[in-house]
Design a protein that fits this description.
single chain; alpha/beta; 8-stranded mixed barrel; 12 helices; 9 strands; binds ligand C2E; binds magnesium ion; EAL domain-containing protein
Length: 287
Amino acid sequence: YLAKKERGNVQRFQSALSEAAIRRLNLEQDLRQALPNGELELYYQPVVTSGAQQPVAVEALIRWNHPVMGLLPPDQFIPLAEENDLIFSLGAWVLQEACRQLSVWRRLWPELRVSINVSSRQFTQTDFASSVAQALAVHHLPASALELEVTETATLDTESLGDYAALMSAGLQLAVDDFGTGYSSIVRLFELPVGILKIDRSLVAALIPSQDRRRSTLPLIRSFVTYARESGLQVTAEGVETPEQLEVLKQAGCDLIQGFLIARPASAAQTERWLRQTTEREYDPQA
Ligand code: C2E
Ligand code: MG
Ligand code: MG
Ligand code: MG
């Protein structure tokens, strides 16, 4: 009886496995079509100064308008794209589209910058630095208008960094994303030409102690800020959701703030509306 039951479990397990495998395969096929079908879209989330809350940059965050499943967040397809070579065409599109959109927005906000997320496979790809230079040139943008966000700093070899040297001396910024999580190597940071540390939102979420969390991450964040100051880096806090978090981060010396409290990631049209409203409010003497 037991043996029979176990056989049943194995069968159920196998069919569940193949179901997942089939879904994956379908998704991969769909993803190949997503780019030519125009189903990919960039959302944008503003990054503001911690003091006056002035927008200084927007982070491009990819979305997939899947014909059946609707709007998909990156977690549901970026890992898949990274496993095969789709990440290269996808990443090239992100670079182009973000630069195109920024060149439009800079007519209204000449200092605005854009940051894009670059997977480490893409960053170390031989042609990527030259496609960055090309995208900037095509859209008449200075290198200082663009930031590249990378995680997994440990995998960034010095060799591929050399490709970016000219761009970086022209002002291209490199940001370490999800800083303070297992993906970023603190030791490696001393060797990398990084300009911005983006403190991971898990550390921001644990900033203010609660009943089930007695300790705060504040001392840790303070030490990152101290390190950043001494090394001439800027610190962005990600995932800021409450006014209390904002206040604590401002006191701790974080330069830049990003999170739902300021604005959620939104379509280009909605982001443009947000930028208009935010900057009008600042310049309106009646307000
Ligand atoms: P990330 O670069 O760390 O982006 C921040 C993520 O946190 C975004 O999720 C954003 O929607 C979310 N977020 C922002 N503020 C808050 C907040 O206050 N509270 C909470 N709970 N979440 C907040 P999203 O858009 O789902 O992106 C997830 C990740 O996917 C990104 O993390 C990035 O690593 C990756 N990604 C996004 N776009 C691209 C892309 O174009 N290329 C590559 N390679 N990766 C991308
Ligand atoms: Mg990012
Ligand atoms: Mg992050
Ligand atoms: Mg991330």
